[in-house]
């Protein structure tokens, strides 16, 4: 490979590391930076381009680290800033860039600013960094407005002094007031802190939620009134300032944006704002040829005017694992429909997940790969007494939560806890299912037909064949249940989303398939192929 392009992010495959569940370097049952550093060669061998780390900062871990108490310190359970610097450097030597996570909508209630606000009392300057308000009702006993929580329940908590404070997530995650200049200045300083330590980019959590209508009015969905806390126009000025910081380091900004309107989504990707953003529309679509093609076409069409690359993702630390989702009657994803005990055909789901891997890796733009997807891990059912996710508790137990996609990884089939940790081999923080060793890296590495073998082969081709990554796509005429397109240079991707075998288009070579062709050389159902025209 030649000199890396400054626009590497336009075509990169970015591997998401959920540190707590990746690898345990000191045997205490919790993943850490030492564990990641020990496994860096295997990530390089996998063939990804960058590593995105979910929050590794000091945190009470009420919401899996998305309740940050100090951005300039690593949580002691994971390591130290010095270890993070070594990890960033060692990864770079292996050709892996590092992306960190910033959570600007809120902080932990243990953050110094919020503790100062509690101590200072009502009406104090310290409280102006947050959204403190008196309550409604004769005695202030009612919340200041009717906004719904992202995690169910109320978005307001009342203090003994009578003030209420806003939290779109849990009470332990008070929302910051982004109209306050100190909030903006602090986050720009945090960006520089991590860019100075060698990170290549920053992922922005809940990027559409920061700005609020200063009046904090009531809002009823379906009323037609502008939303007072999602996708407000003030956000764009914030991200223009962030872009200036990032550009000084040739850094990249990546937004987490759950927005239903593609036109509004694309506004965040204008040349002076975020570089890229997660494409959640594709992740949520069912395993259906018309739905998948519509999502692909709409995504590319709405990115084109702002000249931003599309991004593709099948799973992350918040959603149901791909092999499980694709093995269910409803193959789409929505938080509102998650339930315990949903029937799943894992063989079918795995077949579809393999095909989906080749589909996403052949599309124009960049790809995000959540840890364990390359192993074909299913969603785990967490026993009631071991669930930790606040989404479960705030739903009254109806939502199983997100722990099932966060179970510690299996590395070595015959080692304690499937090789997740080292001596003294404490039990992992979330329980591993009994069949976890069958998915272990060492077992799959020896099998070229395994899910890991497929991902390694696909990523090897993606790095060596020039047609992959950013660039144009042209659809081919096919049967309704088949998706087929050609990339510049003659690389074909064909995906049979139906049940019956399909004829392949004319080609000179088969580069890779997600499963074997039938005896007549046809593509079976729920199977994908990469071809040379």
- Helicity range of the residues? 25-40%
Task: Report the biggest beta sheet as strand number plus sense, adding barrel if it closes.
Answer: 8 strands, parallel
* Low-pLDDT sequence parts: none
Q: Could you give the count of β-strands?
A: 18
Describe the structure.
There is one protein chain. The protein is α/β, with parallel strands linked by helices. The chain is 27% helix and 14% strand. The protein is built from 14 helices and 18 strands. The chain has an eight-stranded parallel sheet. Helix 2 runs parallel beside helix 3, helix 5 runs parallel beside helix 6 (234-248) and helix 11 packs parallel to helix 14 (451-464). The model has no long low-confidence stretch (mean pLDDT 94).
Topology, please?
Layout: E1 13-17, H1 19-22, H2 33-46, E2 50-53, E3 57-58, E4 70-74, H3 81-93, E5 97-102, H4 112-120, E6 132-133, E7 156-158, E8 164-166, H5 181-196, E9 201-204, H6 234-248, E10 252-255, H7 262-267, E11 276-277, H8 280-284, H9 289-303, E12 311-313, H10 322-325, H11 346-362, E13 366-370, H12 390-394, H13 441-445, H14 451-464, E14 473-475, E15 482-487, E16 491-496, E17 509-513, E18 527-532
Parallel strand pairs: 1-2, 1-13, 2-5, 5-9, 9-10, 10-11, 12-13
Antiparallel strand pairs: 3-4, 6-8, 7-8, 14-15, 15-16, 16-18, 17-18
Helix pairs in contact: 2-3, 5-6, 11-14
Please tag this protein with its features.
14% strand; globular; 533 residues; eight-stranded parallel β-sheet; alpha/beta; five-stranded antiparallel β-sheet
């Amino acid at each position: 490979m030649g000199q890396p392009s400054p626009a590497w992010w336009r075509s990169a495959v970015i591997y998401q590391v959920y540190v707590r569940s990746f690898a345990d370097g000191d045997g205490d049952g919790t993943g850490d930076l030492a564990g990641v550093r020990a496994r860096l060669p295997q990530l390089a061998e996998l063939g990804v381009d960058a590593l995105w780390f979910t929050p590794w900062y000091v945190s009470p871990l009420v919401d899996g680290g998305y309740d940050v108490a100090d951005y300039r310190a690593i949580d002691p359970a994971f390591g130290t800033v010095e270890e993070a610097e070594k990890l960033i450097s060692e990864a770079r030597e292996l050709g892996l860039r590092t992306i960190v996570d910033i959570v600007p909508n809120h902080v932990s209630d243990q953050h110094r600013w919020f503790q100062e606000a509690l101590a200072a009392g009502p009406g104090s300057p310290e409280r102006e960094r947050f959204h403190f308000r008196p309550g409604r009702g004769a005695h202030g006993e009612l919340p200041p407005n009717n906004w719904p929580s992202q995690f169910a329940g109320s978005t307001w908590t009342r203090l003994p002094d009578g003030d209420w404070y806003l939290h779109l997530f849990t009470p332990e995650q008070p929302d910051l007031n982004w109209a306050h200049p100190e909030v903006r200045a602090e986050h720009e300083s945090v960006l520089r802190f991590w860019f100075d330590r060698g990170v290549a980019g920053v992922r922005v959590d809940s990027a559409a939620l920061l700005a609020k209508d200063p009046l904090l009015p009531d809002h009823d969905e379906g009323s037609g009134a502008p939303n007072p806390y999602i996708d407000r126009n003030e956000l764009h000025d914030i991200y223009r300032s962030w872009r200036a910081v990032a550009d000084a380091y040739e850094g990249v900004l990546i937004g987490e944006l759950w927005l239903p309107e593609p036109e509004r989504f694309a506004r965040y990707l204008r040349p002076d704002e975020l570089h890229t953003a997660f494409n959640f529309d594709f992740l949520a679509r069912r395993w259906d040829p018309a739905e998948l093609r519509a999502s692909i076409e709409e995504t590319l069409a709405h990115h084109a005017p702002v000249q931003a690359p599309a991004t593709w993702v099948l799973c992350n630390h918040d959603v149901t694992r791909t092999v499980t989702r694709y093995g269910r009657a409803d193959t789409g994803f929505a938080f509102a429909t998650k339930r315990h005990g949903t029937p799943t055909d894992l063989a079918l789901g795995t077949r579809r997940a393999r095909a989906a891997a080749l589909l996403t890796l052949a599309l124009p733009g960049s790809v995000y790969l959540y840890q364990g997807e390359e192993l074909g891990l299913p969603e785990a059912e967490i026993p009631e007494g071991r669930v930790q996710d606040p989404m479960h508790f705030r739903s009254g137990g109806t939502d199983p939560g997100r722990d099932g996609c966060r179970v510690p990884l299996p590395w070595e089939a015959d080692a304690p806890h499937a090789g997740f940790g080292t001596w003294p081999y404490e039990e992992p923080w979330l329980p591993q299912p009994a069949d976890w060793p069958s998915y272990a890296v060492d077992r799959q590495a020896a099998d070229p037909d395994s899910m890991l073998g497929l991902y390694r082969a696909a990523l090897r081709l993606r790095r060596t064949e020039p047609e992959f990554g950013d660039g144009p796509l042209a659809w081919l005429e096919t049967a309704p249940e088949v998706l087929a397109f050609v990339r510049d240079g003659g690389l074909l991707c064909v995906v049979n989303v139906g049940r019956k075998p399909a004829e392949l288009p004319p080609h000179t070579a088969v580069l890779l398939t997600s499963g074997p062709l039938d005896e007549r050389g046809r593509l079976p159902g729920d199977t994908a192929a990469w071809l040379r025209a």
